[in-house]
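call fold(seq) -> tokens
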Amino acid sequence: MIERIKNVPARPDRALVLHRLGYRRGKTELDAAQMHGLDGAFRRCAGMIKADAAFLRLGIVSRGGGLVSLEGGAELPGKDIVKLLGGSGGVYLMGATVPGYDSLTKGLFGRDPEFAVVLDAYTSEYADAALDFVCALVSQRLRPFGEKLTRRFSPGYGDMPLDAQKGLFEALELSRLGVSVLESGLLRPEKSVIAVAGVIGRNAAGEGSRA
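ret:
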């Protein structure tokens, strides 16, 4: 069963947002006024956006030959994901989106380019933070069963093609969160992400909707 969370109670890691903006500790020099200005921009960002998420547990039907096939027909192509899920009895699919981001930023780079760059970085990390929240929630549920998640993996990384997102998009019914997918596999709104994580542990082979 697909579970959905509206207004995910997550916030991006400040250090990761700064890193995305090009800040490197020990190399980038920012005075107190500049850091104060950035913190003010981060607070402004937090007041403008929210994130929604969906997640689903599926069993693994088969794996090998560079392909993992899941219950329901979704497929995960690539040797990297086959290796990651080698000890998994099932997977969690998850997706997160920042609704309204595209309309929110329309023309912003022309009107206020400095803030637009900050908002772009902040929102990217916010979508990732929403997936972190989902992983933490699922991990808490799995712990009593002696199970845990692998690291998460997204289409477009390693040797998994970006267009693999299309099948995962359908499995998660992300259209119900206002997300759409292009033929290329790109998601809209822009700040939308899909990932998969394996379930490992003593009971992982017993698939279903337990957690």
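Confidence is low (pLDDT under 50) at residues 206-211.
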